[in-house]
Amino acid sequence: MHAIEFENVDFAYSEEGKREFCIKGLNFAVEEGEFVAVLGHNGSGKSTLARLSNGILVPDGGKITVFDTPLDDKHLFDVRKQVGVVFQNPDNQTVASIVEDDVAFGAENVALPREEIGRRIDFALQAVGMEEYRHATVARLSGGQKQRIAIAGVLALKPRLMIFDEATAMLDPKGRREIAAVAKRLNEEENITVILITHFMEEALLADRAIVLNKGEIVMEGAPKDIFARHEELLTYNLTLPRIGTICKTLREGGMSVTDTLDTDLLADEIARDLKGGNAS
Amino acid sequence: MKEVSFGQYYPVDSFVHRMDPRLKIVFLIGFIVAIFVANSFYGLIACAGVLILIIAFSRVPFVKILKAVRGVLFLVLFTAVINILFHGGEHVYWKWKIFTVTREGIVFSAYLILRLVLLVVCSSMLTYTTTPVSLTDGIESLLTPLKWVHFPVHALALIMSIALRFIPILMEETERIKNAQKARGADFESGGLIKRIRAFIPILVPLLISALRKAEELGDAMDARCYGGKKRTKYKKLRFTWRDLVGFLTLAILITGVALLRVYVGDIV
Fold it and tell me: What domain count does chain A have?
């Protein structure tokens, strides 16, 4: 089953009478259980994609289907229960001052019974590794921790598809790694379909499949490794390689025989082998 | 991050801290009624006695109480002086043009001071022993009956709790904008009052814009979490315990007591 399917979706902002296309004839589908990374430079339409997926924005044309349910006015809440979106700024998505109150917010909105909400809070906080912060004040947490609380708030609704809309963009490297790891774990252990929207190429490495968006259209698609191998093409879409990719490329240009890899250990081995080989000859 | 504190919650664990916020709000209202029903020295002493008991059981240090009083000291003294000069009465001590100082005026002002001080101390006891969050929960719960007349009680409570949540965020934002403007050469310290007020415009405009953007993003995030459905449940439940019963009985006895004093002992002023 498709977790989400876009069929010929158009979305345009009207500005001063001119229609500015943000998403143009977009066709794509994500399978249930898949982990997909959506890459794109600013203005590529990737955030619009997230907001279209749960009905915050309504497409001008085309059709969006979520787990076989069409996304329309009648099914808006059904779809929102199944699609969780984590946004960029952790501060702007927490409603309550206390961690557990915030995590409860979504579950309260769908009128779950009290005991169930309690269980959902336990589950969600455990899934993001924040159990001991249940009664803490949100304002005192670090950026990464706040974002994990935001994820827990979405998880409390038990969504089947989670979209991370540049959820790591405002975090420091440590927070970024935390959130990426949580996304990966949710996909593997909770069997939640994940769409990770990002402009950090490293994060796309976690995905089964990567999609590159440019000006509202899909321009590249495939396994992250294969996409990263096409450096020049990526550059034309204003995307830069993950550091390890750049290192591989530079090393090869410098005359070392290393293959294109994204695995640090593998690269280290290859460098070692090359250096040894060099000494021997 | 800079520790941002607002409100005046005093974080200790005590009998009063553990009371239900609803009871504390009701107690404050009842207490205000009591100090205005009490019209004799004994009645006000009874109110003061109860308040001292509360302070003792709250473990809030006495310095904090004095601080609360100091905040309104000027207002209290000003009101008292005006009352002494204009109250009028039979036993005149001193008279000059429109000003008269009478025994009645002095007694009335003394009572007024006592009442205002009791009022201020009791209200600050509420905020010292109750977090803003549970205060909001308490207000929401107390307003629940208004749902019958379709008053949006939950929306009001949500507005209050979001406001509380965003106070530290906006304070941080203000600081950030202020520093950014300082780095561009803005001057907030020198010049007259008008000039200094004008200097804040470059802070207020970006702050307003940022607040609007935050509101929009928050709205999206709330929508994404299914806000706006017809039915809604509440996870947190306030519980009425034996402590609250003790508080309620104390209040009942106090109000009955001062009312009886008023009826049987009569007006002293």
Answer: 2
**Predicted TM-score (pTM) of this structure:** 0.80
**Looking at the complex, does the CB of residue B233 fall below 8 Å from at least one CB of chain A?**
yes
Are residue A188 and residue A266 in the same domain, yes or no? no
Query: Nearest CA of chain A to the CA of B217: how many Å?
Result: 6
**A34 alpha-carbon distance from chain centroid:** 12
Going from the C-alpha of B21 to that of each of A99, B131, B139, the distances in angstroms are 20, 9, 8
A253 and A143 share one domain: no
pLDDT at B41: 84
d(CA A193, CA A31): 8
Domain CATH number, residue A145 = 3.40.50.300
pLDDT at position A240, please?
77
B140/B146 Cα distance (integer angstroms): 10
**Across A215-223, average pLDDT:** 90
- Per CB-CB distance under 8 Å, the chain B contacts of A87 are 217, 220-221, 224
Q: What confidence score (pLDDT) does residue A280 get? A: 46
Q: Which amino acid does the sequence have at A161?
A: L
Q: Does residue A23 fall inside a structural domain? A: no
Helix axes A143-155, A99-109, angle to 10 degrees: 30
Task: Determine the structural domain holding residue A200 and report its residue range.
Answer: 33-60+69-224
A267 and A154 co-located in one domain: no
Please report residues of A whose CB lies closer than 8 A to that of B161. Answer: 95-97, 101
Q: Where are the domains of chain B?
A: 21-167+236-264
| Residue entry with tokens 């009022």 | B119
Confirm whether A9 is domain-assigned: no
* Residue closest to A26 by CA, chosen among A214, A227, A201, A194: A214
Stretch among A152-161, B58-67, B124-133, B259-268 having the lowest mean pLDDT? B259-268
Question: What distance in Å separates residue B201's CA from the closest CA in chain A?
Answer: 24
A118 & A176 share domain? yes
Check A109 against B229: CB less than 8 A apart.
Answer: yes
- Burial string for B36-73 (b: 16+ CB within 10 Å, else e) reads ebbbbbebbebbbebbeebbebbebeeeebeebeeebe
Residue B5: its pLDDT value, please? 46
Looking at the structure, tell me whether residues A281 and A200 fall in a common domain.
no
Higher local confidence (pLDDT), A257 or B172: B172
Taking residues A166-180, report their average pLDDT. Answer: 88
Alpha carbons A163 and A37: distance in angstroms, whole number? 10
Q: How confident is the model at residue A275 (pLDDT cuts 50, 70, 90)?
A: confident
Residues A52 and A106 in one domain: yes
A15 part of a folded domain: no
A84 and A172 housed in the same domain: yes
